[in-house]
Amino acid sequence: MTKSEMIYEGKGKKMWSVAEDSDLLIAEFKDDLTAFNAEKRGSESGKGALNNKISTAIFKLLKEKGIQTALVETLSDTEQLVKKCKIIPLEVVVRNIATGSLSKRLGIKEGTVLPFTLVEFYYKDDALGDPLVNDEHCLMMDLVKSENDLDRLKHLGREINSILFSFFANKGLKLVDFKIEFGVDKDGNILLADEISPDSCRFWDAKTNEKMDKDRFRQDLGNVKMAYEEVLRRILSE
């Protein structure tokens, strides 16, 4: 597959059209690191390749479990071939343990195990800082077509969480929370898109609660690449 034109560049990836097929795109993972709505920026050599490998492994697992995804195949260390879809402008955040913005907003002590899986929506708009929105906001702003679509996104979020929570528990990791995105393909199917990686998830070591994700960059903990490498090692371990 041949890259044709870069159609989008985000915080963690570049998206390219494909010369041979207008229904496919090439996703190129970057080494860039950003936090706090890109107010903090950095770079970690090899991070893009690690995220590509981690996300590919997770998407393959989810596909085996019946989740429809946009991933077609891995092309290189930093590139994926994906189905072209219209991204729903919502970040779907799934939470199992309180931390980050949830703790700050509601005063819930970090590390508190939530009584049930919490699913939140954030409107994808960098200029607004990706604000938290409720169901009525989503419908009012035409971010989805119907309440059924919102229910579908919530159901998928919880289903993906159920699969991954058990998977990572078996790898000695707590899946604290994660952000996912969905798109609609040409046939109207809702597909899991974007990526699932330490850039978009919080992983804590099951024994020590050591942070194994982008919080190491956010909080200046260091050893970002080593943490991502350890997550990949555990994912691939038998």
CATH level-two architecture of the largest domain: 2-Layer Sandwich
Topology order in helix (H) and strand (E) letters = EEEEEHEEEEHEEHHEEEHH
Structural class by helix and strand composition: alpha+beta
- Helix percent band: 25-40%
Mean pLDDT: 96
Q: Could you tell me the number of beta strands?
A: 14
The CATH topology name of the largest domain reads D-amino Acid Aminotransferase, Chain A, domain 1
| Beta-strand share of residues | 25-35%
Number of helices: 6
Number of separate domains: 2
Poorly predicted runs are none
**First-residue to last-residue Cα separation:** 32 Å
Radius of gyration over all CA atoms, rounded: 17 Å
Q: Would you identify the CATH H-level superfamily of the largest domain?
A: ATP-grasp fold, B domain
- CATH structural class of the largest domain: Alpha Beta
Quick description:
Pfam families: SAICAR_synt (PF01259). By secondary structure, the chain is an alpha+beta fold.
Structure description:
Pathway: Purine metabolism; IMP biosynthesis via de novo pathway; 5-amino-1-(5-phospho-D-ribosyl)imidazole-4-carboxamide from 5-amino-1-(5-phospho-D-ribosyl)imidazole-4-carboxylate: step 1/2. It holds the Pfam family SAICAR_synt. It comes from Campylobacter iguaniorum. Residues 7-234 form the SAICAR synthetase/ADE2 N-terminal domain. The structure is a single chain. This protein is α+β, with helices and mostly antiparallel strands and 238 residues long. Strand 6 (71-74) and strand 7 form a beta hairpin. The strands form three sheets. Strands 8, 9, 10, 11, 12, 13 and 14 form a seven-stranded antiparallel sheet that branches. A five-stranded antiparallel sheet has the order 1-2-3-7-6. It contains six helices and 14 strands. It is globular and about 50 Å long. The protein has two domains: 3-83, 2-Layer Sandwich (Phosphorylase Kinase, domain 1), CATH 3.30.200; 86-224, D-amino Acid Aminotransferase, Chain A, domain 1, CATH 3.30.470.
